Amino acid sequence: MTEIITIGNELTEGRISDTNAKWLAERMTMAGFTVSRISSVRDDRETLAGVIREASGRSDIVILSGGLGPTTDDVTKGALCDLTGSKLVGEKTVFLHIKKMLKERGLKLNENNRKQSEIPEGSKAIANPLGTAPGIWIEKEGKVIVAMPGVPFELENMAEKEVLPRLKATFSTPSSYYRTIMTSGSFEAMLAEILGDFEKQLPSGVSIAYLSSPGVIKLRLGARAGSDNEAREMVEREVEKLNKIIPEYITGYDDETLEMTVGRLLKAAGRSLCTAESSTGGTVSSMIVSVPGSSEYFKGGIVAYSNEFKINLLEIDNTILDKYGAVSRQTVEAMAKNSCRITGSDYSIAVSGIAGPEGGTPAKPVGTVCIAVNSPSGCIAKKFSFGDNRRRNIQRASMAALNMLRKRICEEES
Predict the structure, then answer these.
(1) Which one-letter DSSP state was computed for residue 256?
(2) Which of 96, 183, 210, 351 has the fewest CB atoms in 10 Å of its CB?
(3) CA–CA–CA angle 286, 305, 379 (5° rounding)
(4) pTM given for the model
(5) pLDDT, tens digit (0-9, with 9 covering 90-100), for 7-20
(6) 30 compared with 383, residue with greater pLDDT
(7) Any idea what DSSP says for residue 101?
């Protein structure tokens, strides 16, 4: 069993999200380890030592994140000394690394930097090429305690290159294999109902998890078996079944986001894209350009938030706005068609809605969103209702727009 402990007042006070615990749990699970508990502890040496003691008493592996910096609120090394009855000692290799790194950055070495090179006596330092805080590896009575920096990119690099390989070499784990199936256009309860029979027939050793976020549901299929090939084959058989059961909802696999899928389809078809956004305020465009190489197919976007901009920039006929309103199928159809004409693009996405929390009416409550996709074969428009949370409305509308485009491309270019 493995336990993950993240350290810092910023976590226990809710000032930041615990992304390190999520990342570590995912990587440990995919490596074949079972994570039994995840906890967060404030910057208190005595409390932390007690939590580590309890965790190491019931788990074979305890992974710590944070509290290894040079300031007074970094208490992890002290807590580890209390736990092991040791003292801090300088580690020459770490000190030389810190000295070299500071020199390259034009910074002077000070007493706090020297303290960062200290680790509990009897422990082993874990190299941190991206920072000055070393990781710490402690083996005690068949248990392993690992402490890593809280800076995400330092932790991830150290875990991938040093910690996970050492843990795999120290502990025997079953072979495992995982696939993530990205879906859009449904919601968790409905998808779970559709896949009810599929879940019942899953063979022993194969599991499924639903990971939901606005506009996206990730299906995580995993298997543990006697060999890597066996685990892979078990999962891939189930993936093929999902491809037949819910093809209309599947947008990609593993790390392929919806915007990546759309980009891949546009590149394969040799087509171009533009956007015309109102309520999403450029979110759709931002998602599109987050994909490397998007300049090959994305011409640009127009954010026309006000009716004045819709008329002046997108050349929307004022009579359409007067008769149907800014949030209507007629308006987004005009936005999509005109943006295609103005930019010379093959495809266009247009979005207009009431994100909230104000602006709704009985006929068009908060969360009402109209989306249109213009394409070589014509324009389609749909009306959605996404609820009363502004942030989620923008996220869901952006995902729905990209998914409408994905489906349209697949229909026309297949």
Answers:
(1) -
(2) 96
(3) 75
(4) 0.77
(5) 999 999 999 999 99
(6) 383
(7) H
Distance, CA of 133 to chain centre:
26
- State how far the Cα of 316 lies from the Cα of 333, in Å rounded to an integer: 10
Please name the residues in contact with 109: beta carbons below 8 A apart, sequence gap of 6 or more. 98, 99, 102
251 to each of 43, 120, 193, 218, 254, how far by Cα in Å? 42, 49, 19, 10, 10
Residue 266, pLDDT > 80, answer: yes
Question: Is the distance from CB of 134 to CB of 101 less than 8 angstroms?
Answer: no
Both tokens assigned to 27: 């990587």
Residue found under tokens 């954010």: 303
Q: Residue 245: which residues within 8 A CB-CB, separation 6 or more? A: 194, 195, 198
For every residue of 12-73, DSSP letters joined together read HTTSS--HHHHHHHHHHHHTT--EEEEEEE-S-HHHHHHHHHHHHHH-SEEEEES--SSSTT
Rounded CA-CA distance 388/379 in Å is 28
Query: What structural domains does the chain harbor?
Result: 2-170 (3.40.980.10), 175-253 (3.30.70.2860), 258-413 (3.90.950.20)
Nearest to 129 by CA among 157, 160, 148: 157
pLDDT of residue 186: 87
- The Cα 327–Cα 304 span in angstroms is 13
Residues 96 and 115: their CA atoms lie apart, in Å, by: 13
Please compute, for residue 230, the number of CA atoms within 13 A of its CA located in the half-sphere on the CB side. Answer: 10
The set of residues, in sequence order, having a beta carbon less than 8 Å from that of 228 and lying 6+ positions away, is 175, 177
* Residue 211 token pair: 């990971």
What backbone phi and psi angles, to 5 degrees, belong to 365? -70, 165
Q: Collapse the DSSP code of 127 into the 3-class scheme (helix H, G, I; strand E, B; otherwise coil) and give the result.
A: coil
Contact 258, 251 (CB under 8 A): yes
Tokens of 64: 């710590």
Q: State yes or no: pLDDT of 112 exceeds 90.
A: no
Q: With contact defined as beta carbons under 8 Å apart, do 265 and 409 qualify? A: yes
Alpha helices in 180-293 (DSSP H): 188-194, 196-200, 228-245, 258-269, 283-289
Distance of CA 327 to the CA centre of its chain: 31
The answer to whether the beta carbons of residues 224 and 175 sit under 8 Å apart is yes
At residue 116, what is the residue type?
A: Q
* E strand map for 313-377: 347-353, 368-375
Encoded amino acid at 39, one letter: S
